[in-house]
TrEMBL record:
Sequence ranges assigned to domain Sulfatase-modifying factor enzyme-like in this UniProt record: 27-228
Organism placement in taxonomy: Bacteria, Pseudomonadati, Bacteroidota, Flavobacteriia, Flavobacteriales
Xref: Gene3D superfamilies: paralog of FGE (formylglycine-generating enzyme) (3.90.1580.10)
InterPro entries: CTDL_fold, Sulfatase_Mod_Factor_Kinase, SUMF_dom, SUMF_sf
Signal sequence interval, chain numbering: none
Protein species of origin: Arenibacter algicola
Protein name, per record: Iron(II)-dependent oxidoreductase
Residue ranges the record marks as coiled coil: none
């Protein structure tokens, strides 16, 4: 069940988006317009509730996750096998945050990440409501954007389901109105999104949240997808 967005509200939103002057994204990024979208889930894990109407300002977001080659331009000591130069870089939160700042960008908030992944219609996966295994990069031997069907999110982002988890800027905290206790809530764990190659399809839903210690990722392959504010 999704929050009720009336036809009038939807049309007003569309007219607002169409009326906005669409800026040209920087190279390797796509544009996400300002406005409302459906965030969270009524059937997922307790931390995805309550499902809500959220909003963001307009922003740019990377089309792909940051590659090993791109990260090595920031950190020359970063090592990776030559055959994985176009694979998503796996780094701790502080390194991801430092890279984003170096690139003149920042890490996305949960709201920004989820909106870029699902658009405004509350879809379950970046491509729609039906799961398809050919849409996902499951093997990290594969380079970015190499799923068989090559699906994109509503705004043109790739690999927002599967591939590697992706860092957000947010601490793992409950959504406003959530009354289900979680001992992990607070400012100890950072939120990562997007699932990964060892997870089942429930982990790659657009509303799925997961938490990890920012500097102790261990078995969690977490990568970077940056956003940039629009002046």
């Amino acid at each position: 069940m999704k929050p009720c967005i009336t036809l009038l509200t939807f049309l007003v939103h569309i007219l607002y988006v169409v009326g906005q002057e669409k800026p040209v994204p920087p190279e390797g990024m796509v544009y996400v317009p300002a406005g409302e979208f459906i965030m969270g889930s009524v059937y997922g894990d307790p931390d995805e509730r309550p499902q809500q109407i959220a909003s963001t300002k307009a922003f740019f977001i990377d089309k792909y996750e940051v590659s090993n080659t791109e990260f090595a331009k920031f950190d020359p000591t970063f090592k990776f096998p030559p055959e994985k130069k176009n694979n998503a870089a796996i780094v701790t939160w502080s390194k991801a945050d430092a890279y984003a700042k170096w690139a003149g960008k920042r890490l996305p908030t949960e709201k920004e990440w989820e909106k870029a992944a699902r658009g405004i219609d509350g879809r379950v996966f970046p491509w729609g409501d039906t799961y398809d295994n050919t849409y996902v990069v499951w093997d990290q031997k594969e380079t970015r954007g190499t799923s068989i069907a090559k699906p994109a999110s509503p705004y043109g982002c790739y690999d927002m389901a599967g591939s590697v988890w992706e860092w957000t800027s947010d601490w793992y905290k409950p959504y406003p109105g959530n009354t289900v206790p979680m001992e992990q809530y607070g400012e100890t764990y950072k939120v990562m999104r997007g699932g990964s190659n060892f997870n089942n399809h429930s982990f790659i839903r657009t509303s799925q949240r997961y938490y990890v210690l920012p500097e102790k990722i261990h078995v969690y392959p977490v990568g970077i997808r940056c956003v940039k504010d629009i002046d």
